[in-house]
Amino acid sequence: MRVGLFRVLAIVASCLTGLAACETSKNGMAQVDGEPQTTGSIAYPSPDGVPPPEVAPSSTGLLGDDGKDDLNLGKKYYRENSFGLAEKHFRRAVETSARDLEAWIGLAASYDKLRRFDLADRAYEQAIVIAGPRPEILNNQGYSYLLRGDYKRARAKLLAAQAKDPSNPYIQNNLDLLEESVRNKSAIK
Fold it and tell me: Which among 9, 89, 121, 149 has most CB atoms closer than 10 A?
């Protein structure tokens, strides 16, 4: 009986310790230390093996400095596979700072996940205007074409990315995905 009571008290104490830092926001979402908590796990890199958009920090210094700015919220929601929310925050980020490469790449990747390829193409074009055809952008464009089942364009973009960065494992992963898709005659999902 004494052991059982001790075990119950230990469980209650651990629960109370966990709740001490927990509060509920105005919208009813649980927060720990001011950060919204989700029930799902954060997948990084995402389940399809493609990393969330990550490039050099913004040169403007306006975005990315605050953990709750739209750029960081976009990345957070992208890692959580909440692509609609990620798109919303990345879109706000590019509206705030139209020359922020990281925000444009994140916006394009979010559009890809939402299967809004027309908008993804426009965002990738804007990223190329800002930074030129960097391997990260070409890789993401290749992956975008892979999602659409456009293997010819996917191969061209991925090979161009690989030529610029031959040792990049993400580019190689996408080339492997391309070969598998061609073999199976089906686009990736």
Answer: 89
